[in-house]
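Researcher: Next entry in the queue.
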Amino acid sequence: MAAKVIDLLLWNKEYKNEIAVLQRLKHPSIIGLLDTERRCDGRGVIYLEYQSDPTLSFYVHNVSTLSETVAVDVLYSLVDAVHYLHSLGISHHDIKPDNILFKSVNHSIKLFDFGLSVCVNPAKPFSRCNAGSPLYMAPEVLIHDFHNVFYADIWSIGICLYEILAGKNPFATCKDIDELEVEWTNHKDISLPVFLCSSVLRNLYSQMVAYDPNKRISSGELKKILSKNTQKKCIGNSLRSSGEKKKAKRSSSVQGVIISIHNKKTKKKDVKKMK
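Model: Structure for this entry, 275 residues:
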């Protein structure tokens, strides 16, 4: 097992919060809770399932960025885990590569560190919590205060996707919060470079990082688009697993799924015409 040791004098609230959330969770892409302990020296310990794998951040910055096929595998697992959290009324609220363990052999992940997670009514997922990691934090978390925590998670997932493909955070040049807020206010273009991935994934990414949270795609919609069948038939087959830069074939099937989700009036026969 792995032991996470916490100074309760400084982080007692986060300690209690993480335990309360982890006790409710059981998902293959989320770290498992084994036991907890309060020590007489003022420290708390959270015992978690042991994973020898590095964080996604360590892997990307010290080994290699991910090819699109591997990135899509990681994205699917992360979205599946986050959709599970959202169904329970839980927002992780601090999704970043440093909080994701990555097994390169089978591309599996484990999401961890729920100290800043937020519990809400799934039907009204709003909060004033402004905690998190600035470079991965949705703009509205600080700028507008009261925000939809589910859509804030989606933004963070999108920024993670950018980093694992490009090797850097799109806001990495910002030195402090003030500079970051300027970039947000000016709606800095953080589109994925064309050479990094297919138009299909770039389109999906753009729906995750829309500056207007009301225009972002939901975890449920993301999961549907990234379903294993769609992923294998439409995305994986058009890309090289070696990570070489290749212009991927346009996948009309995935485009059809995206369009059908965001345009309820589109009929199936209209989607077929796109092929």
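Model: The domain at 2-48 is CATH 3.30.200.20 (Phosphorylase Kinase; domain 1).
Researcher: Noted, moving on.
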